[in-house]
## 1
Amino acid sequence: MNRRSLCFVALLASFLTSSTAFAGVWFELLRAPCFTGDKDNMALGGRYRGAVDCFNEDFNGGGARTTLTIKAFQQWEYGSVFLYYDITGPFTPASAFKQSANLKGGFFGGITVAVSPKSIAEKVLERKFDWGPLRDVSLKYEMEHVSKFGMLHYYGLQWDLAVPGMDFVTATTVIRDDWGLRGVDLQVGLAWQKSFSLGTQDFLFLGFFQTGLFGEGEGVGAMAGSRGNRFFLAQPELLWDFGKLVHFTPGKIYLGGEYQIAYNRYLIQGKIENVLQGMIRWNI
């Protein structure tokens, strides 16, 4: 399970809970400086023991890492389309031959199509349905792209919940189907967002977690000899509306941080990641 796979779920869910059509493009720039990492104190798998701002040194790059995320969303009357891509090392020049392929612009991302049977039924029957704490249920399909491995698929449901005091809370239950592993897995997640103010300043607390409950079994083909394990990934964020502070358009420029904790990263047994990243978000 690669980075921020479903940070996009948080944003997607916020739009799906609205009956008003929305379209948008936004960018996120994240930096893990790896100040607390010590190359003389590393565990197997490239993990910096005790560090809080370092990625693992692995096929995706080094402990210090910059990631540029590009996202786009289009809502329609009966659902939505969303795409996002993370680019690792987006500013590494092509002349840097000694860098790994992923560090020189490796990517991870996906395209999601969601369809709301509730919205379709309301249109056909010309009436609104009130499901109490359940705002909506959408059918979801995602094709996910990873530069080192290719494409995998997710099929399932997205559950939009009405939680007092929250901008949104959304749960997902999907089947993960990875071409390189013999089986499939049930993947469960939760995403949330809470906007709040301190004095005159506005903030967002948002994030998600995802967990694969069973693992996908033995590897096949080029993945033979490996195994898809259970995993856990969480990425809470705290963002400050910096644009409002400098009298720019509110809700456009955010500064903050994202904390990522992962267990069995990339479905690899025992691979742990613990990373605090600085973050800039620009809503175009």
## 2
Amino acid sequence: MSEADLSPITLDPQEAATAQEAGSGQLAFLIPLLMMNFILSGAMATALDSTAGEKERGTLESLLVSPVARSEVVAGKLLATTITALAAAAASVLGLLGTGLIAGLVLVSGGMDAEISQAFGGQLTLGGGSVLGLALSALGAALLISAVLIALSIYARSYKEAQTYVTPLSLLIVVPALFLQFSDGFDTAFYGVPLFGSMLSVMDAVTGTLQWPQLWLSLGANLLLTAVLGAVALRSFGREEVIFRN
């Protein structure tokens, strides 16, 4: 027998991930989780103060008797909450990435190997399409979270009661985000799950594997549920037993 007969099978590993996907590291999992939490934190104060806070201060009645349609009132509060949420999320994510960049440069300049420093986080390289997909996903998630907050907090008697209602919402972000680690087993249907689909789209944008049909599906699911919750909030703004529930 020849020496080649002793090794009839030769393994030749091939890297299946793209350079951007392999380089993103833990950022692929952390950015969707942190972004949704930042959106929730940024929207919470505005949503609660403009609904339960106004009810507690007694200024909501004077707003509702003004010559403005109830739909315009709800739309204005939803828009203000969404803008606040997006501003908070953008500032927080930029701060996170800036801190990570500085930390990485310090580690490398201190003599740590680049591959070792990569294990502590990752490298974020986004193209124009990825940035646009990231922004659209964040917008859809911000609209949905803002609608949830407004629909819940308008029913509360006071600001503290509204805080009790919305505090558990963080679990609706943290628990689904844990399953992002198993995203390879998810098919396109999971992008149709409100909010969770946005997390998947954000992760795809970070790793450079974004597919536009899946992004539109996640955005459509968020907008559909936002419209439903907006209708619920509009109905609450038209009910005296809700407005005067204090």
## 3
Amino acid sequence: MRHLLCFCCFIAGFAAAAEKAVLRMAMPDYPPYTYVEDGQYQGEGYDAFVFIMQHLQRDFHISLVPNYGRAVLDLQNEVIDGLFLASENAERNNMAVFSDPVSITRWTWVWLTQEQTLTPDSSNFASRAIVSAQINSNIYLWLKAQGYRVAGGPNNIRDLFRLLNNRRVDAIMLPEQTALTVIKENNYPLQNYQFKTMRELPFAIYISKRFLEKEPDFMVQLNNAIAEYQQSRKALPQ
């Protein structure tokens, strides 16, 4: 009987270990990487995350948030266990661990083609130009830290072009692919804009340190799954 009880305890313990908590993730509205269309989650960042979670055989729950500021606040309040896709900064690193890169994001200046004097190439651009980015995004925080004259940014990244088109700012900064997506969505003439890439950064997944206290091996597993995702992309026909 004692051997039977020990065996039952072993089985119960194994089952409990196998039951992993559902991973709660925030996904900012950030086309073309992560967004909602026709009530469905979409975007290359969303597809990548789903692939990675399937490789891990991990259940997850996604909360769509309007911007990165909200995602970081939810992370701080332990409403979520992580966020994707994101670039790295010190504030986020205080609360979470940054994964290996899933993709690359290119922070890009966008300004009106008809503006010939005050452009990002100008020697006095940083001291004179009024610029903007999505509020509380990593780009917004970086611009302020670099000493640019940053106007209040919108919550919705799509509204950056309204600021620019109405000449309320001289230039905006956002990922290149996001800029091109918003231009296409709104049928803005592409020739109305000039572009200059400022920074090229890893775009990855943040997992909270509180979550990792409970599952200390998770980041190794996650990075292995990201490596599998990268290999799968290389295998696709070019």
